[in-house]
Amino acid sequence: MKLLSVIKRCLLLAAILAAPQSYAIAESQVLATAGEMSVTDDDLKSAMASSPFATQFPSMDREDQALLRGSLLQRLVASKLLYQEAKRLEIDKTEAFQQDVETFRLGLLYRHFMDKLREGIRVPEDVTASIQQQYPNDTDGAAAARAAYLSDRYRAMRYLTIKNLRNKYNIKVYESRIQPHQMSDDTVLLEGDGILITYKHAVGNQVNPPQNKTWLMERLYKRAELLVIAKAANDEGVDLSDRLNSYRGERLPAMMIEQKQREWISGKDTLKKHYDAHPEFSRTMERWHIGQIVLSNHEDAEAVSQRIKAGESLFLLAGELSIDPYGKRMRGDMGWVKEGAGHPDIEKAVSGLEDNQLSEIVQTPAGFHLVMILERSPSLKRTFASMRDKVAQSLISEKSAEYFNELSERYKVVWNLIGEKQAQTEKH
Q: Any transmembrane segments, and where (predicted)?
């Protein structure tokens, strides 16, 4: 089944999740399975809690809540598919993935150690008394003084701690080896007990790094600071297993889709071909400021048309006679409408109109319309260069849909809907 059908199924399940308590899903109910992995109600709750819309969710109406949950559920299932595909392709065994996880691990250790260092700093009683004496009636001033004291103490403690750790781990810097254009990736620039930094480690992911000794020394010392502090935290026995496993589970699907995106956008020619195949990228849509009145039958519409042509105001008549609630409330002023966003028959009727010229009667399921263009914003040409980012986004969106359909051929997706006798197998 195509991706659109899966989205509909997600929305249906989300609607059930948003139903009153009497129809609520049991705790840890499996909502969907993708291959060998499952998405539970707890997974969805966790995703909701970390969503940018979490604080707004209680104030949303039931339909919007269902749409949000459906979207999150779809993403969770997609993540499971990507994870299994990445495992199949052994992306988790690549050097890039291992380095990514190691960078994350070092960052966690660094933050843990530094947070602990900062939390151990206190404002002594004599300093507190001095601040209170200096700012007797100024709460904000006293708070700022305490913050300044803590900041100064942290900087001093940080410097002293790094100095002590460098001595503890016998750090040696080979500054004489830092010679522009004369270093290989494996040139060792710094080493110590369990610590080694080569030229490649120092420059990191920099493309064409500056051949500048001052710049490289700064990079080297920053890398050394990270490693000695991470080693100190690791020596304390900090347990990061849960957070690292969680990161691996999140990062692996992300690397999988990043790899596919690099394949899809292989160069300028690929994007240019997509741009040429979609004329809507080469120009902005024309926009019209529309005035409209809607009548219930052709006879009434014909009578009102004659009255407008005789000089009466479409807007006054719309406020009095229009059967469209919004149009009546707005007295016929429908605001700006972009070409392609309105009813096709109405757009066809107004396409050849001059400004303030009344259209012929247009019949739609909503009634019989009389429309005029009050003002317009013309279509403009757009170059490939100016639209490159949007072209890339469009191509990624198009390829993503095809890719998830492809994954569905490899991994079976099962949606567990409350009220059904058994899970329904669906393909994207």
A: none
